[in-house]
UniProtKB/TrEMBL annotation:
Record-listed E.C. numbers: 3.6.1.66
Lineage: Bacteria, Bacillati, Bacillota, Clostridia, Peptostreptococcales
Catalytic class of the enzyme: hydrolase
Family named by the database record: Belongs to the HAM1 NTPase family.
Any Gene Ontology CC annotation: cytosol
Gene Ontology MF terms: dITP diphosphatase activity; ITP diphosphatase activity; metal ion binding; nucleotide binding; ribonucleoside triphosphate phosphatase activity; XTP diphosphatase activity
Name this polypeptide is given: dITP/XTP pyrophosphatase
Catalytic activity field: dITP + H2O = dIMP + diphosphate + H(+); XTP + H2O = XMP + diphosphate + H(+); ITP + H2O = IMP + diphosphate + H(+)
Length: 210
């Protein structure tokens, strides 16, 4: 029997992205809604991505009794002292839309030249296991903040985040490329080694016989 893994998120875009990247992992992957946690709200009130990520993972693990995966991610801009950081989703206020957050970021970067608009997307992914084990990994993707939104794919700050190697925003590149090079993909790549060590021994034979 395969292990259940519940993604501690209600963000449809993020869930789809994580599921796509995790498709080769041998888990039955569920969203919070699919796991029956439609009413569970976890307040992200910690100071770091690591703390918020683990808080969410542990809350979902306790509520489901299953392995839980949580991602806390955001955008850090060097010249803004790493803002918006852990406040990325609510940069323009609680309940802010992606458009409002992007508009606020562009307003704060008015007059800042291209060579001073460096930043990075950060993703910290945590796993919480019912037996008490915990794992956290961090992935980063460096880039440049553009002067205007470009592209129709992705979500959040994707239309403003230019990947220098492609000279295109995440929103222009689309999911196929983004899911190979993104901060979340890099964090999940690190997580593969952790998962292989954790479930590859005791559970590996069961998985290979399925």
């Amino acid at each position: 029997m395969r292990n259940k893994l519940v993604i501690a998120s209600k963000n449809r875009h993020k869930i789809e992205e994580i599921k796509d990247i995790l498709r080769t992992f041998h888990f039955d992957i569920l969203s919070m809604d699919e796991a029956g946690l439609t009413d569970l709200e976890v307040v992200e009130d910690r100071e770091t991505f690591e703390e918020n990520s683990m808080k969410k993972a542990e809350a979902v693990m306790r509520a489901t009794g299953s392995i839980a995966l949580a991602d806390d991610s955001g955008l850090e801009v060097d010249i803004l002292d790493n803002q918006p950081g852990v406040y990325s989703a609510r940069f323009a206020g609680e309940g802010a839309t992606d458009q409002k957050n992007n508009e606020k970021l562009l307003d704060m970067l008015q007059g800042i030249p291209a060579d001073k608009r460096q930043g990075r997307f950060v993703s910290v992914i945590s796993l919480a296991f019912p037996d008490g084990r915990k794992v956290s990994v961090r992935g980063e993707c460096p880039g440049i903040i553009g002067f205007e939104p470009k592209g129709d794919h992705g979500f959040g700050y994707d239309p403003l985040f230019i990947v220098p190697a492609y000279d295109k925003t995440f929103a222009e590149l689309g999911e196929g490329i983004k899911n190979k090079i993104s901060h979340r993909a890099r964090a999940l790549a690190k997580l593969q080694d952790e998962l292989r060590e954790i479930v590859g021994g005791r559970d590996g034979e069961d998985r290979n016989n399925q």
